[in-house]
Automatic annotation (TrEMBL):
This is Mevalonate kinase. The keyword Secreted does not apply. Keywords: ATP-binding, Kinase, Nucleotide-binding, Transferase. GO terms for molecular function: ATP binding; mevalonate kinase activity. The lineage of its organism: Bacteria, Pseudomonadati, Bacteroidota, Flavobacteriia, Flavobacteriales. Residues 253-300 form the GHMP kinase C-terminal domain. It is an enzyme of class 2 (transferase). It comes from Frigoriflavimonas asaccharolytica. Gene3D superfamilies: 3.30.230.10, GHMP kinase, C-terminal domain. Its EC number is 2.7.1.36.
């Protein structure tokens, strides 16, 4: 069996904003990966994964998928009976797309029509996003389809608005002093409750106004400056975004992170932002001087994901 690997994803910018039509920028993250495999299901993990796939395949049987994007559920179920499971190192509840990689792997293997990533047009991307949203809604109740799309394409994706996405090139890495990195908050986050808090906040006019006039403006400006590699406006808008999140996304920031979030803002040594929905899992860090930031963040597990 051909076992293509599906990588985790990182939403660099756009958490919560993409719900309100802001831009988003997301990249594949090859440190974590998953693939469909066969086994005799001798371990507890393999057994559980196989059972989960069985439940998911039952869900797919009654699913209405747009024409041209059908899944061969019969073949999927035959393989499940032969010991199919999803081997994955992607942590769940960390905001790096564990269900997205699974959905992408199943679609790649069992979609009736094939869609090679390198040949996909912008219109097909739009349609695939819708299909992946339907397929992933089993795991989250409601899904934008972005996570599986990133995992499937294995390319950076610019979310232009709610409807439109496009492939994008990010500036090539080079080993400079600066870095984008992940900090492990030490706890698992659950997407559902965090999104619920966000929608509660959106009921107040003041929050809706600041979301539209400030958050989305800073968020989109960060994406624009990053893609153009204009680091001075990038860090200026990043600080505004981090300040805004500290004030308005407090419930989504894990308690273990409060102090270091503020310390970054006070010293300008680094800036933090949510990675996905927050509540736990990873937090994203940005710095012009990683060696300095690393010393200041002693005691926290960190992973560098991009150097500049």
């Amino acid at each position: 069996m051909n076992n293509p690997l599906f990588y985790a994803k990182i939403l660099l910018f756009g958490e919560y904003g993409i719900i309100e039509d802001s831009q988003g920028l997301t990249l594949p993250y090859s440190f974590y990966k998953g693939s469909l495999k066969f086994s005799d299901l001798s371990t507890e993990f393999e057994k559980k994964s196989n059972e989960s796939l069985k439940k998911y395949s039952d869900y797919l049987l009654n699913l209405d998928v747009p024409n041209g994007f059908e899944i061969n559920v019969e073949d999927f179920q035959k393989d499940i009976a032969k010991g199919l499971f999803f081997e994955s190192t992607i942590p769940q509840g960390y905001g790096v797309g564990s269900s997205g990689a699974l959905v992408a792997a199943i679609f790649e293997k069992y979609s009736v029509e094939k869609f090679p990533a390198e040949l996909i047009s912008k219109d097909q991307l739009k349609s695939l996003k819708v299909v992946f949203g339907i397929l992933e809604s089993y795991f989250h109740g409601k899904s934008s389809g972005i996570d599986p799309l990133i995992c499937y394409m294995n390319l950076p994706i610019l979310i232009e608005n709610k409807e439109s996405v496009d492939k994008v090139s990010i500036p090539a890495e080079h080993i400079g002093k600066g870095a984008i990195f992940l900090i492990d908050s030490g706890s698992v986050g659950e997407t559902g409750p965090m999104v619920q808090i966000f929608f509660e906040k959106m009921k107040t006019e003041g929050f809706r106004k600041t979301m539209k006039e400030e958050f989305i403006r800073y968020n989109n400006a960060c994406i624009d400056a990053f893609l153009k590699k204009e680091m001075t406006p990038f860090f200026k808008n990043l600080k505004s975004l981090s300040v805004w999140a500290y004030e308005h996304f407090k419930p989504m920031i894990p308690e273990s992170i409060y102090k270091i979030w503020k310390k970054g803002l006070d010293t300008n040594a680094y800036y933090l932002k949510l990675c996905g929905s927050g509540g736990g899992g990873y937090i994203l860090g940005f710095t012009k001087d990683y060696a300095k930031a690393e010393k200041m963040l002693k005691g926290f597990d960190k992973e560098v994901i991009y150097r500049f």
